[in-house]
Design a protein that fits this description.
This protein has 172 residues and is an alpha+beta fold. The chain has 5 helices and 7 strands, in the order βαααβββαβαββ. 35% of the residues lie in helices and 34% in strands. A 7-stranded mixed sheet has the order 1-2-3-4-5-7-6, with helices on both faces. The longest helix is centred in the N-terminal third of the chain and has 16 residues. It is globular, with a radius of gyration of 15 Å. The protein starts with a strand and ends with a strand.
């Protein structure tokens, strides 16, 4: 099924917070210490933090709806909003989060295609993202689209240091 994508605005902040916490917990709670997870969720998805991200000109959020139900979202970063800087004119996909009961319906692929379309429209040289090294489903998903590992960085869930693999795809 095809979802409908809308830009996320400040009026969507409560729903953005809710879906951010829900999807992160659903995906990563089983592999993380509950105290570390609670710390991370409160820091990463607090209303003030999300409001600041929404106000950052080089960050954009998009909701995807399926049959009038919020199914997931996409966060894109450019320029100084990127979590890693490179000499490339890049577009970072910081998050593609899909609610559990909407997975395996092609919505992640649709959001990724949407990100590729924006990258093409903006004449970006590279599209890239970070994926937790133990998230094999996500790694395989991105590899099918031609992403390759180009590095790694530390990612903290609370006090737990983890490794994200930096995956990139050259566009021009």
């Amino acid at each position: 099924m095809k979802g409908t994508i809308y830009p996320c605005t400040h009026k969507d902040l409560p729903e953005l917070q809710k879906i951010s916490i829900e999807t992160f917990k659903d995906t990563f709670a089983a592999e993380n210490d509950p105290n570390d997870l609670t710390t991370y969720l409160s820091n990463a998805y607090g209303l003030a933090k999300l409001e600041k991200e929404l106000s950052t000109p080089d960050s954009r959020f998009f909701f995807i709806y399926l049959e009038d139900q919020l199914a997931g979202y996409l966060k894109l970063n450019t320029n100084k909003a990127q979590t890693e800087m490179s000499d490339k004119n890049g577009l970072e996909i910081e998050r593609i989060y899909i609610r559990k009961h909407f997975k395996r319906q092609g919505l992640g692929r649709q959001l990724l295609d949407f990100a590729f379309a924006i990258a093409d429209q903006e004449k970006r040289e590279q599209i890239w993202l970070g994926v937790w090294e133990h998230n094999q489903n996500a790694l395989r998903f991105y590899q099918t689209f031609g992403f390759v590992q180009v590095g790694s960085h530390d990612f903290y869930v609370g006090d737990d240091q983890q490794t994200d693999l930096i995956m990139a795809k050259e566009l021009l």
